[in-house]
Structure formats: structure tokens, C-alpha cells
From TrEMBL:
This is Uncharacterized protein. It comes from the Eukaryota. It comes from Bauhinia variegata.
């Protein structure tokens, strides 16, 4: 995989690059598993589990530990189809057996190579993801939906020529495999994206020839289709998005109608199909994450404080970051077990990851943990499956 390449200084931090390094799935199958696979494949029209009603069989499959899902997907078409479905996640949720894993895009200390790491709630590494199809990109968007990771658009350089992309790829965390989805209507990079009510929104960014965009579109996974919606009132790039109470919030970044960074917040109401505006956003945001019903941000100008947004009253609360573990002034966020993880951007051998627990007893919100990526964190998402 080529290193992170310089494309355009207007990219927001951090610039992220996907690795094309092919890494094999570490899961292996026993001889008995191969025997089972050959038997069941011979009769794909049979019930999911012979002798059991399908609803009972589905419940039984849902109880299997998550690390075995890729092997289960090879047993039969029916098993694979069920494991890929939203119903599979729903059954596991109702059974109370969802497992939370942290997917971290990391780079080496020199920023030349990157890959995805997968950690469980104890920080144990499970696997490395297979290489995503297509060329390496920067300025792409990442969203989680129905137990799947979507990597959208971005900017790629092929044979010395750079251009924005509209391609969308989906990683199935249960089957450990990639597939391509319908491309976006507008090629873009350095844009905002988020999931709201089971739909994915992409807003703003840069388009062809580096022009700033105000356009927005929404993806419906049931139809595998992108639909253009009402545009922003102004172009916006280097921004980020999140969903609260069924609405899409877009903040941070820059607008061509402001000098410097934009502090306004664009809010989209899907029911009314319209945008409105708030004035109390954050500027020059270097890290953000949604935990529960609150948004956590860190600004470039003050990276030793968390800015916490409460959408109920559109207020912000500032929380100092303790010096415990590291005096670093650069962090990336992760979410695990309803806690906020602060991964240092400095490669410190003795660094312990800072953890902020918003539900802890006052005065005990901050802890440290040995959980940390094997490389420098570029971005992370949490997938429950």
C-alpha cells in the first residue's frame, strides 16, 4: 500500500488513507467443519437446521460467538443470507448476546501504511480486515449501519492523476468481507456523513476540480439507492455530522461565506425535508464522537478540554482532560462499553489510553486503560453484532 499521499492542503485533519495490503483472515476451520459444510451445501433447499422450525434455528445460530460468524457463512446459502440480514442483528440483540468490537484505522509512525484493526471490549485483537476494493483514498467518509461499515467517496490518485470518487464500499463485520454498493450521485471528499433513522446522509465537501459543495444526498440500504435532497444554504467542507432525535446536525469545517472556520450548525429535519441553522457550534474540530445522547468534540485551539454538546438545550459543557497517562495535546476518539476513549496521536510506548465515563460518580469520570491500537489511530468506529 502506498503511503498517505499529499493531495490538497484544504483537507481537514486527520487525512486518512486506506491500505491495499491484503491480509488473510486468521480464522481456520477444523476437519469436522469442512465435513459439515459439504453435507449442508448438498441440500441448500433444506431447513436452516434439520429438525427445527426456522425461528428456533435462527435463535440457535444467533447464540454462536461472533468470532465464528465468517466460518458459519460458508456452511450454506441460507446461513450466509441470515447472517447478512438485519434480522440476525435483531435476534442477537433480543437474546442479549451482541458483542461490541472496535474497528480502528491505524497507520505506522511514519504514516506510510495503514490498515484496520479489530479489538474487543478487553482490547484483544481479533483479526485484520481484508483489503477494500478500489484504490487508496483520503478524505473519505465512514458510517456504521446494521452491523456493517460503509466507506464512502474520497479522493484518490491513480497514475499521477487525482480525482474525487463517488464509490461506496461496505464491509460486513459478520462475514469479514467487502462488497460494492450503489455509487453516490455526486463525487466528493472532505465531507460530512452520518446515519439518522436507518438512512445515511452525505453533505458538502469538495467536488470535481476542487469546487466547494452545498449539495446533500441520502442513502436507503433497503433500496441501495442514493437520493439528492435539499442543499445547504452555503457550501461547506471539512465538516462532520451526527444524528440526534431523528435530525441531522452538520458542524465544524469551513464555508466560502465566512472568514476562517464556520461556527454555525446546519440542522436537517427529514420529516420537513428542510434545513435550519444554529449559531453555537464548534470550530476547527480535530476529533468528535457521539456517546449516548451527547456529542463530544475536541478543538484544535484547546486540545486539553472536551467540549460536550447536549442537543436537548443546544448547550455546551467544557471538561478538562487530566494529564494522567500523557501530556499529549492530540487525540482521536473511540467508543467502547459506553465510555469515551482518547487515543494519543503521539507514539508513546508507556501511554495508557484515557477513558471518560459520563455515567461515573462525579470526580471519578476519568480512568486509564491498556486498550490501545497497535498503530496510530486515524479514525475508529464501534460495531455491535
Amino acid at each position: 500500500m502506498p503511503g498517505i499521499f499529499a493531495v490538497n492542503k484544504r483537507f481537514s485533519e486527520p487525512n486518512m488513507c486506506l491500505s491495499n495490503l491484503v491480509q488473510e483472515d486468521s480464522l481456520t476451520r477444523s476437519k469436522s467443519s469442512h465435513h459439515l459444510i459439504s453435507e449442508v451445501r448438498d441440500n441448500d433447499e433444506s431447513s436452516i437446521l434439520p429438525g427445527l422450525p426456522d425461528d428456533v434455528a435462527k435463535y440457535c445460530l444467533a447464540l454462536v460467538p461472533r468470532s465464528n460468524f465468517p466460518s458459519m457463512g460458508g456452511v450454506s446459502k441460507k446461513w450466509r443470507s441470515f447472517i447478512k440480514s438485519k434480522e440476525f442483528i435483531t435476534v442477537r440483540r433480543l437474546a442479549g448476546v451482541l458483542e461490541e468490537w472496535l474497528y480502528i484505522l491505524t497507520s505506522d509512525s511514519e504514516g506510510k501504511e495503514s490498515h484496520w484493526e479489530v479489538l474487543d471490549c478487553l482490547g484483544q485483537k481479533h483479526r485484520s480486515l481484508p483489503a477494500m476494493p478500489g484504490p487508496g483514498k483520503v478524505g473519505f467518509g465512514v458510517v456504521v449501519l446494521n452491523g456493517k461499515l460503509l466507506v464512502m467517496a474520497g479522493y484518490s490518485v491513480i497514475d499521477g492523476t487525482g480525482s474525487p470518487s463517488a464509490e461506496v464500499y461496505q464491509y460486513d463485520s459478520c462475514l469479514n468481507s467487502w462488497s460494492r454498493l450503489k455509487s453516490m450521485n455526486v463525487a466528493r471528499y472532505d465531507f460530512a456523513c452520518a446515519e439518522v433513522n436507518g438512512l445515511i446522509y452525505a453533505v458538502g465537501g469538495y467536488g470535481m476540480d476542487g469546487e466547494s459543495l452545498s449539495s446533500a444526498e441520502v442513502y436507503d440500504p433497503d433500496t441501495n439507492k442514493w437520493t439528492v435532497i435539499e442543499s445547504l444554504r452555503r457550501p461547506r467542507w471539512g465538516c462532520f455530522a451526527c444524528g440526534f432525535e431523528g435530525k441531522l446536525y452538520v458542524m465544524g469545517g469551513r464555508s466560502s461565506f465566512t472568514i476562517g472556520n464556520s461556527k454555525c450548525v446546519d440542522v436537517y429535519n427529514p420529516e420537513r425535508h428542510s434545513w435550519c441553522e444554529m449559531k453555537n457550534g464548534r470550530v476547527m474540530v480535530t476529533a468528535h464522537a457521539v456517546l449516548g445522547k451527547k456529542l463530544f468534540c475536541m478543538e484544535w485551539k484547546n486540545q486539553r478540554k472536551l467540549a460536550i454538546f447536549n442537543p436537548n438545550d443546544n448547550s455546551w459543557k467544557m471538561v478538562p482532560v487530566p494529564l494522567t497517562g500523557s501530556s499529549s495535546i492530540g487525540f482521536r476518539f473511540g467508543i467502547l462499553d459506553e465510555k469515551l476513549l482518547l487515543f494519543s496521536l503521539v507514539d508513546e510506548p508507556g501511554y495508557q489510553t484515557l477513558i471518560y465515563d459520563p455515567n461515573a460518580t462525579p470526580g471519578l469520570e476519568w480512568q486509564t486503560s491498556e486498550i490501545k491500537p497497535y498503530g496510530l489511530c486515524l479514525c475508529s468506529v464501534t460495531i455491535k453484532a
